[in-house]
Amino acid sequence: MKDGFGTLLDEAAAHALNYADARQAIGVARRRRALRATGAAAMVVAFLLAGPWTWDRIESSPPAAPARTHPVYPPKVVPPESAELLPADRPVGAAAFLYSPCPHPDRCPEYLVIPDGHQYLMPPLADRLHATSKYTLSPDGRYLGWDAGEQYRIRDLQGSTALDVEVPGAGRELSAAGWSPDSRYVLVVRHEDAPRTYVRVALDGSSAPVTIPHDDTPSPTREAVAQVLNTGDVILAGPEGDPPVVRLRIVDAATLREKRRIEIDRTGMPKDWEVASAQFLLAPCGCEVSFPLWAHQTHWAPDLGQNVETGVAPVWHAIQTGLLRYELTSGHLISRHDVPPPSTDRKKTKFTSMWAVKADLAGGQVALNWRVDRAEIVLVNSVNGSHNVVTRLPAGAVVLVRSATTAIY
Amino acid sequence: MDRYAGFDEFVQARGAALSRTAFLLTGSHHLAEDLLQQALAKTAVHWPRVSKGGNPEGYVRRAMINERTSWWRRRKVIEVPAVDEALGREQGPDQAESVVRRLAVLHALATLAPRQRAAVVLRYFEDLTEPQIAEELGCSVGTVKSQLHDAMNRLRAVAPAMLAEGALK
Predict the structure, then answer these.
(1) Between A and B, how many residue pairs show a Cβ–Cβ distance under 8 A?
(2) Whole-prediction pTM value?
(3) Where are the domains of chain A?
(4) Where do the structural domains in chain B lie, given as residue ranges?
(5) Which of A10, A124, A203, B167 could pair with A4 in a Cys bridge, judged by C-beta atoms 3.0 to 4.6 Å apart?
(6) Residue B169: pLDDT above 50?
(7) Which of the four pLDDT bands, split at 50, 70 and 90, describes residue B96?
(8) How far is CA A250 from the centre of its chain?
């Protein structure tokens, strides 16, 4: 039994998650070994072709910078000429993300990308419109969920099993409303006119699916089911009547018994030309929430030095400017960090680069940057604000990252 | 023969403990995952040799400490002290007290140089002896003693309230 400072360290360390992933580590190790073997073979060939003079030069030249590798994200993804259909009966491993090379589902297929860069062709769904948005990936990439018609289907990509979730009601589409950060729970919703029906599913089989007894009638004056935590408890958010203050309630999923109430005061936090989204990202620890900040539809943005208007971009969506991060236990502001401002062409008629943060995962906040020449997946370090481009994709690609419930075009 | 035989079982068994060490070395979930995964990847590359050596956990810890030190040298990671405002709040008997304490510990650790921080974590969290720490850090026992001494002085200076009750001995 420790005491004193050791106990304080134990207490702080208890806040850690399990970050270890043997499969990813082995994947990186294999790539590094292959890279070394290729490099050695290239050196031998160079030596044989050009002789010792070249060898001397190679030996004396400075070493090249190593290729940046990431355990989850392959550095470059291009659509394959042919790809194997995602097999239904054998494991393929946790997925990095889903993408389609263009925003037109009838023209471009969709691919599931594995961390080692392998791509599987996704089977087409009945409804081809916005098909990428029909899928979701769990935060650890292990589970793939989609609307299978009468049920919501959740496939274990590391195994060959699938779980069909029955959601009371009929006639409207099913989707995942959120994953717990540890990928243990998922919220599935049936979109009715009123009220919506939510079911909480435990993916480890530790409990039966729970239909959340909340009257979730869409209304600005009512609370809405927003997220599920690692404990299985559910966050209710709203009502939206008083925008500066966001009220969150953590409740038991089966009984709605309130466990905690948090008021997040956002007064004065956004700049006067910004609005804070009611939707929030849940941090990997389940203890922090981040509210994306968006620019008004049309405004003069003094910080950007330009008139920013939503809708002139090559892709249609609002302009994200930053995130406000709050501690969930207290509602206190932890930090604000900005995403890089969008850039435009010389006439300012269209955007040439635009960012959006889509998920908050253990490896960093995952942002997408749409550029004229390519799309990029970027990891944002929320501690120091640094950005690392981890994957480059074709221009105009539609990407669905882990944990996100929608893709953005 | 699979050159990675036994690696998965090792990570399953020790991953959570190594995660806690990574978290104390970085103070951030994002950086801790990066740090641990990079160390595990390095370990996997040399797994046949590491597993024969009999102390793979020590190898991963050494890899994490060295990687953390090289981040600091490259200044790619900027130490951002945890929430100052939280440290200044009055402590209460509820869960907020534990949050404030955790932030205070991480804040104090963030003020240490990487090898001082590693020495403190190995000594007070991993309960290693000074000779064991010297082996992990690849330095002499005398250097470990001086690193711990300097670290303790620093912690007393930046977190007097936390250590006022004689917590750090």
Answers:
(1) 153
(2) 0.59
(3) 22-67, 68-401
(4) 1-78, 97-163
(5) B167
(6) no
(7) low
(8) 23
Q: Could you tell me which CATH class the domain A68-401 is placed in? A: mainly beta
Contact B99 A384 (CB under 8 A): no
Mutate to test the interface with B, among A9, A19, A360 (most CBs of B within 10 A): A19
Please tell me the distance from the alpha carbon of residue A400 to that of residue A100, in angstroms, as a whole number: 9
With a pLDDT cut of 70, the percent of chain B lying above it is 77
What value of ipTM does the predicted structure carry? 0.82
| B125 interfacial to chain A (CB closer than 8 Å) | yes
Q: What's the pLDDT at A243?
A: 57
Domain B97-163 of CATH type 3.30.70.20: no
Asked if B37 lies within 8 A of A28 by C-beta distance, the reply is yes
Contacting B residues, span 51-70, partner chain A, CB-CB under 8 Å: none
Amino acid at B102: R
B8 touches chain A (CB under 8 A): yes
Which chain B residues are within 8 Å of A329, Cβ to Cβ? Answer: 95-96, 99
Contact A71/B at CB under 8 A: yes
A249: β partners: A236, A261
**How far, in Å, CA of B169 to CA of B151, rounded?**
12
- How many angstroms separate the CA atoms of B25 and B106, rounded? 9
What's the rounded Cα separation, in Å, for the pair A76 and B151? 43
* pLDDT tens digits, A209-265: 999 988 877 776 778 888 999 999 999 987 765 556 778 899 999 999 999 888 887
Q: Does B112 touch chain A (CB under 8 A)?
A: no
Give CA separation, B81 vs A100, A131, B149, in Å.
41, 43, 22
Mutate to test the interface with A, among B7, B9, B37 (most CBs of A within 10 A): B37
Inter-chain contact A15–B7, Cβ cutoff 8 Å? Answer: no
Answer whether B110 touches A (CB < 8 Å): no
**Whole-number Å distance between alpha carbons of A395 and A102:** 8
* A363 shares contact with chain B (CB less than 8 Å): yes
Question: B93: which chain A residues are within 8 Å (Cβ-Cβ)?
Answer: none
- Residue labelled with tokens 């889509």: A358
Q: How confident is the model at residue A24 (pLDDT cuts 50, 70, 90)?
A: confident
Which burial class, exposed, middle or buried, applies to A153 when counting CB atoms under 10 A from its CB (0-12, 13-18, 19+)? Answer: middle
The confidence score (pLDDT) of residue A369 equals: 85
Task: List the single best residue of A1, A26, A69 to mutate versus B (max B Cβ within 10 A).
Answer: A26
pLDDT class for A58, splitting at 50, 70, 90?
very low
Query: Looking at the predicted structure, is the pLDDT value of residue A336 above 90?
Result: no
Q: Among the residues of chain B, which ranges form H helices?
A: 7-26, 29-45, 47-53, 56-74, 84-88, 95-110, 114-120, 130-137, 141-158, 160-163
Q: How many C-beta atoms surround the C-beta of residue A162 within 10 A?
A: 15
Q: Decide if B102 and A32 are in contact by the 8 Å CB cutoff.
A: no
